[in-house]
Amino acid sequence: MNRTLRRTALQDSSRLLMGLRQNLRPIESIRSSPSLLQIYTSCRQSSSQSSSSQPEPFGSSTLWPVARIYIVGSLVYMIFHWIWWKLESDEIEEKLSDRVANLEQELESLLEERSLARSQSTSGYVSRITSLLHKLVFW
Known about the structure:
The model has no long low-confidence stretch (mean pLDDT 75). The chain is an all-alpha fold. It has helices at residues 2-32, 36-53, 63-137. It starts with a helix and ends with a helix.
């Protein structure tokens, strides 16, 4: 009976110690857990090791800079093209407005000459007709 008591006492004490150990494990894990700095450095080292071991996809490092240069270059080209077009269209418009003004002056002078010629020719024409009529009537 003594032996059985000892066994049960030992079993009870071992169970008690096991329970205490299980309850103390979270505290021990907090104490032994790595700091954030250690985690960050280990992640950084593992990412640098994994990136150096794997080849980069084609153009992954140069695609965005090339695209940016293409976009900026296209934008600059379009701006300069618009400026050039605007200046040229202003110059053409000025030339055409000068030409229109010259043609209007020429047209006005021609109309004045025509009206003068008509007035002179109609008065001469009327006088000829009247003279012919007088000759016919009073012959």
